[in-house]
Design brief:
By secondary structure, this protein is α/β, with parallel strands linked by helices. The chain has ten helices and 14 strands. The strands form two sheets. An eight-stranded mixed sheet has the order 8-9-10-7-11-12-13-14. The protein has a six-stranded parallel sheet with strand order 3-2-1-4-5-6, with helices on both faces.
């Protein structure tokens, strides 16, 4: 079966990555696109040879009946798109991160997820990068022993790359929910009102505890380490290191390292090459899920909601100067509270 696929939001560069990946997606065809700017819509359609072009994505849903749609909208309309897809009978959505902005839209999306039939995954393609997949398999197989500490970081803030980092942590340590989140936050530049609405403190430092005695050290933003010496690009410094009782594995956007029972190995990889294959594998996994409900996508909406819940509790911990748990009530108006505290 060949799946009919579409993209909402083609005015930014991210959509080109989605389109490019279809050269590696044997079961899917990019058949329709939608964006509000007509010039951008036509330019993208011409570049990728897509004739079905729409200013209104709802019209695209109605006329094209796509099986899967990539969603590249700002986060304030995520729920609106999900609801429209549910009403139109769209099979699956792959939505760009972040899933939400703050507690109010997070809670609304969580309520939607309780009854929705449309299958939703979040675009954390790193999970499917070939090298990341190999390292995740090593940890899952117990090769490094029992996980004790995960060090995960990115140089972009929590809204831009924090959920990537949190998903990386969950991929290497899926054993249950955190028992405590204690965080510090600083800097208000990332809270300035803008079109993308990726609002977050400039720096977040969080310690996450789990019931199995493992813990995570999370650094996101200007306090994140550089993983590629001499490269000042803010977006290329994601990394995760997983320490176990018998060794460790390390992944970054440009390299990897393992130490297992005293034997160390390391190497490099090209991020763009890994990324297109990861994007393709992520989409193929959505097709698997469409074909069989039991083949749950690892980037499914419930998993993403848990990651975003941790993010919100990190903000609350930093604001309120106390450890938070997932059981505590979410604080309304978090972004405005962050602005009042952090913007000078």
């Amino acid at each position: 079966m060949t799946y009919k696929c579409g993209i909402i939001g083609v005015s930014g560069g991210r959509a080109n990555g989605h389109a490019d990946a279809y050269a590696h997606i044997p079961r899917g065809t990019l058949a329709c696109i939608a964006t509000r700017n007509r010039d951008n819509l036509d330019a993208f359609g011409q570049r990728w040879n897509v004739d079905a072009r729409y200013i209104d994505y709802r019209e695209m849903f109605e006329r094209e009946k796509p099986d899967l749609v990539h969603v590249n909208t700002p986060p304030d309309v995520r729920l609106e798109v999900m609801q429209a897809a549910e009403a139109a009978g769209v099979g699956a959505l792959i939505i760009e991160k972040p899933l939400a902005i703050q507690a109010e839209d997070y809670l609304a999306i969580r309520k939607f997820a309780d009854t929705a039939k449309v299958k939703v995954a979040i675009n954390h393609q790193l999970h499917f990068h070939p090298r990341r997949s190999q390292l995740q398999a090593l940890v899952a197989d117990g090769t490094i022993g029992t996980v004790r500490l995960i060090d995960a970081s990115a140089r972009m803030n929590m809204a831009y790359q924090g959920t990537h980092v949190l998903q990386s942590v969950a991929a290497f340590h899926p054993q249950g929910e955190p028992t405590g989140i204690f965080a510090q936050i600083s800097g208000g530049d990332g809270l300035a009102v803008g079109r993308k609405q990726h609002y977050a403190p400039d720096a977040t430092l969080a310690a996450v505890r789990y019931g199995d005695a493992a813990s995570t050290l999370l650094r996101c933003g200007t306090n994140g380490p550089y993983v590629l010496a001499g490269d000042e690009r803010v977006n290329v410094h994601k990394q995760v290191t997983v320490y176990g009782t018998d060794g460790y594995v390390h992944w970054s956007m440009w390299g990897w390292e393992t130490s297992i029972s005293g034997k160390r190995e390391r190497g490099s990889h090209n991020y763009p090459d890994e990324d297109i294959l990861g994007q393709a594998a992520m989409t193929e996994a959505a097709f698997d899920w469409l074909e069989d409900d039991r083949r749950l996508h690892p980037l499914n909406l419930d998993a993403a909601l848990l990651d975003f819940h941790i993010l919100l509790k990190a903000y609350m911990s930093g604001l309120n100067r106390r450890e938070e748990t997932l059981a505590s009530e979410l604080q309304p108006g978090l972004i405005e509270a962050l602005r009042q505290t952090l913007v000078g």
